[in-house]
């Protein structure tokens, strides 16, 4: 068994274990073959199997059955045997109705999901009786069906269940709910969801138990003043995204959570909710807040009024909000906040005023406020004592305003985080932050500072941890020792307050866009000695690495060169050996031929120059040959060559020696090709030089020795394109000597 198989098996085993599958039971007819079973067959998921009927093999063990997204057209009949079923998901099928006995024997059932079926008629559900057997049913999901209207349900049309807790009717195309309460048969109902219905009327809901009513994304226009009066347990009311809804004063002493965002509310009208804790009223049409607007909401803790059109606030608008902790007034049109306004809310800790028309920080007073957001407010000035009234202020966001000056000695004993990003500040001095002893983080990104700050500015800010200074127009005067000091103050570990790359020069010209360190490096660290240890270490590391790589490379090249040289040498020796053999044969052949008649082919082609060169010569002079043309051809061919070969030719002609190849010569040839070629040429040695010039060998040599090679070699090479063998043959056939001898 190889490794792959082992791994595969292990994985399979693991998967089986993880899924609690029973391998033995997995026959094609088995339930768990068709569906996926978990937790020892108590959870069976048969969703998306294209089923029309229940698969065989389901038994009373099953507690959770998922047969969603199948093709069931009628509710499965034989479910009664699954009397332990707790959760049944039959959503995404084609059910149009339920029989009276559909849930027979399903006494344990708690969750029934019938969403995304084809129910259209409320009566087809048999609402009166269908839930009766399911005495433990808690959740009934009927969303994504098409019930249209729930008006005036007669007694026989009421859904009856004494256990049902949650009824979900989202996306059911219900347009109106009115008349006799649809909830009167549900003694235990707590949650009713009616989201995403084109509901324009919601009337007559009566339930003593209902806690949460969801009617978001409907088309409600009004809710009757007394509507909530019959829902004495209502705690959550969510009616967001009813774009035409105007809420008049509703009364509910139980309501704690209200969401009426994205509606058409002109006035908050929350006075009818004395126990309200959280009110979400953003994205509405509120234009102003009256005096005592929230006087009865004494329990309110969270109020979101952002994204309205609130233009004015009275000093006593928020009177009575003794528990309010969070107030969001962002994205309104508030121009001034009367001085004592915040004092009405003694628990207020977070106030959002972003995106209003406040022009100054003003004299807000609060003993509790710790987080104040006044960003994007067109604020252009801060009063010197503007923070003094905010006795607990910790975090002040003044970003994206028009502030050009911070007064000296603006004071707060508690302020830790001051955000002044994207303003028009151009200078601070050593009195600016003097009176902010707790200052921990200061951000002035995107301002107009040019002069590098001085670390003396922060002499009294011992807790300073963070400075955001990027995106300013710093003028880098590297020679000014203050710049270096401040740079160190800001970037030096372990008290680093800003990343050094965020400090960028904007002037003078020659350093625009460079980081401070980059621009001033040679001024601050004039010699190598002063270069900081980090750089030195880096330099050394880089050098060592470079050296190692170079050595490695050189070694590699050397080795490969050596190998190649050895190969060349071996090849050469082989060739020399061959040449020697050939010469021996030639000589023998010549002797042989001398005895035989001349071959008629002899007359066909004269030998080429090289061939002539490589011919072994007989003692007798070639001048005595009867065929004078041969000599001429030879000469002419020789002449066609460059001058450098002329001497070779002369030499050849003059040299009437027998082509004797001495052993010494051979060994020399194998040793030093070049030297041998330069020596006065004799036929034997020359032959070897030529052999050496086989295309492969030549290429090797060229690359090896380069163009410094003498011209003779080059010339010969040009002639050496033909293979050696045929020439040898021709040589023997073209040879004049036989003819001569023939004479
Ligand atoms: C049933 O299966 C569907 C699709 O596989 C899944 O989305 C759904 O959550 C499952 N229902 C339950 C109750 O697990
Ligand atoms: C109904 O449930 C009981 C157990 O509660 C069981 O004994 C009986 O067989 C079930 N009836 C049917 C028809 O499945
Ligand atoms: C019912 O099924 C639908 C679709 O599968 C799902 O979105 C929904 O959450 C389910 N309802 C409950 C109460 O589980
Ligand atoms: C409630 O608000 C509406 C506008 O949304 C307003 O006309 C009405 O007078 C308010 N009711 C009370 C009692 O203030
Ligand atoms: C405020 O509550 C008091 C009782 O606490 C009640 O008399 C008064 O009518 C309420 N005000 C409004 C505007 O609902
Ligand atoms: C304020 O800064 C100036 C230089 O700009 C310095 O001479 C002076 O001592 C500083 N004062 C304090 C209180 O740090």
Describe this protein's structure:
Keywords: Leucine-rich repeat, Membrane, Repeat, Signal, Transmembrane, Transmembrane helix. The chain has 743 residues and is an alpha/beta fold. Among the domains are: 160 residues, Ribonuclease Inhibitor (Leucine-rich repeat, LRR (right-handed beta-alpha superhelix), Alpha-Beta Horseshoe), CATH 3.80.10; 112 residues, no CATH class. Helices cover 26% and strands 10% of the residues. The protein has 15 helices and 26 strands. The strands form four sheets. It has a 20-stranded mixed beta sheet. β1 and β2 form a beta hairpin. α5 runs antiparallel to α9 and α5 crosses α11.
- CATH architecture group name of the domain at 30-189: Alpha-Beta Horseshoe
- Tell me the fraction of residues in β-strands, as a range: 5-15%
Helix content: 25-40%
Low-pLDDT segments, ≥5 res: 20-24, 620-743
Query: What structural class results from the helix and strand content?
Result: alpha/beta
Quickly count the helices: 15
Q: So what's the CATH class of the domain at 30-189? A: Alpha Beta
CATH fold-level topology of the domain at 30-189: Leucine-rich repeat, LRR (right-handed beta-alpha superhelix)
CATH homologous superfamily descriptor of the domain at 30-189 = Ribonuclease Inhibitor
**Tally of DSSP β-strands:** 26
How far the N terminus sits from the C terminus, by CA atoms, comes to 84 Å
Supply Rg. 51 Å
Largest beta-sheet characterization: 20 strands, mixed
Compute the average pLDDT: 80
List of distinct ligands in this structure: 2-acetamido-2-deoxy-beta-D-glucopyranose
The gross shape turns out to be flat
């Amino acid at each position: 068994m190889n490794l792959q198989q082992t791994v595969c098996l292990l994985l399979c085993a693991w998967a089986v274990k993880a899924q609690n599958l029973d391998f033995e039971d997995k026959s094609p007819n088995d339930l768990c073959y068709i569906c996926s079973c978990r937790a020892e067959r108590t959870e069976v998921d048969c969703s998306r199997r294209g089923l029309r009927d229940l698969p065989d093999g389901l038994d009373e063990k099953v507690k959770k059955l998922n047969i969603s997204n199948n093709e069931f057209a009628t509710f499965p009949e034989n479910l009664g045997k699954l009397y332990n079923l707790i959760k049944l998901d039959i959503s995404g099928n084609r059910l149009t109705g339920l029989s009276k006995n559909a849930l027979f024997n399903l006494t344990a059932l708690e969750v029934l999901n019938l969403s995304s079926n084809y129910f259209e008629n409320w009566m087809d559900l048999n609402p009166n009786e269908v839930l009766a057997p399911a005495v433990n049913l808690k959740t009934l999901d009927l969303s994504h069906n098409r019930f249209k209207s729930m008006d005036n349900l007669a007694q026989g049309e009421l859904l009856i269940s004494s256990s049902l807790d949650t009824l979900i009717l989202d996306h059911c195309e219900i347009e109106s709910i009115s008349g006799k309460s649809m909830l009167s048969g549900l003694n235990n109902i707590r949650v009713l969801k009616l989201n995403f219905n084109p509901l324009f009327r919601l009337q007559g809901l009566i339930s003593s138990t209902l806690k949460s009513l969801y009617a978001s994304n409907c088309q409600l226009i009004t809710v009757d003043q007394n509507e909530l009066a019959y829902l004495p347990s209502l705690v959550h009311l969510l009616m967001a995204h009813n774009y035409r809804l105007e809420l008049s004063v509703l009364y509910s002493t139980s309501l704690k959570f209200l969401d009426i965002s994205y509606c058409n509310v002109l006035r908050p009208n929350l006075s009818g909710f004395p126990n309200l804790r959280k009110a979400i009223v953003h994205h509405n049409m509120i234009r102003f807040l009256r005096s005592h607007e929230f006087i009865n909401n004494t329990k309110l803790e969270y109020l979101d009024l952002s994204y309205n059109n609130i233009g004015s606030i009275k000093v006593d608008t928020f009177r009575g909000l003794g528990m309010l902790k969070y107030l969001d007034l962002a994205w309104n049109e508030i121009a001034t906040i009367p001085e004592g306004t915040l004092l009405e809310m003694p628990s207020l800790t977070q106030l959002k005023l972003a995106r209003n028309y406040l022009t100054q920080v003003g004299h807000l007073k609060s003993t509790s406020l710790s987080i104040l957001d006044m960003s994007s407010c067109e604020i252009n000035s801060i009063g010197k004592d503007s923070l003094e009234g905010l006795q607990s202020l910790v975090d002040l966001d003044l970003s994206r305003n028009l502030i050009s000056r911070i007064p000296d000695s603006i004071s707060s004993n508690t302020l830790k985080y001051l955000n002044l990003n994207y303003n028009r500040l151009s200078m601070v001095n050593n009195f600016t932050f003097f009176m902010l002893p707790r200052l921990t983080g200061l951000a002035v990104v995107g301002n107009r500072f040019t002069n590098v700050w001085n670390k003396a500015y922060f002499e009294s800010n011992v807790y300073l941890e963070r400075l955001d200074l990027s995106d300013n127009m710093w003028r880098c005067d590297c020679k000014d020792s203050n710049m270096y000091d401040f740079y160190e103050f800001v970037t030096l570990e372990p008290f680093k307050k800003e990343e050094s790359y965020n400090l960028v020069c904007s002037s003078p010209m020659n350093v625009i866009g460079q980081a401070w360190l980059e621009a001033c490096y040679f001024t601050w660290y004039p010699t190598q000695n002063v270069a900081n240890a980090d750089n030195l270490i880096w330099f050394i590391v880089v050098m060592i690495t470079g050296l190692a790589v170079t050595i490695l490379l050189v070694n590699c090249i050397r080795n490969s060169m050596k190998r190649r040289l050895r190969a060349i040498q071996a090849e050469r020796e082989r060739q020399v050996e061959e040449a020697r053999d050939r010469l021996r044969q030639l000589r023998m052949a010549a002797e042989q031929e001398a005895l035989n008649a001349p071959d008629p082919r002899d007359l066909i082609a004269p030998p080429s120059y090289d061939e002539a060169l490589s011919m072994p010569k007989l003692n007798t002079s070639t001048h005595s040959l009867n065929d004078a043309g041969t000599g001429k051809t030879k000469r002419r061919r020789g002449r066609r060559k460059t001058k450098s070969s002329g001497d070779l030719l002369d030499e050849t002609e003059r040299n009437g020696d027998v082509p004797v190849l001495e052993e010494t010569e051979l060994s020399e040839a194998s040793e030093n090709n070049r030297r041998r070629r330069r020596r006065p040429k004799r036929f034997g040695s020359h032959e070897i030089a030529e052999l050496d010039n086989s295309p492969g060998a030549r290429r090797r040599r060229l690359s090896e020795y380069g163009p410094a090679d003498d011209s003779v070699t080059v010339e010969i090479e040009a002639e050496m394109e033909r293979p050696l063998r045929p020439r040898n043959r021709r040589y023997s056939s073209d040879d004049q000597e036989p003819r001569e001898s023939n004479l």
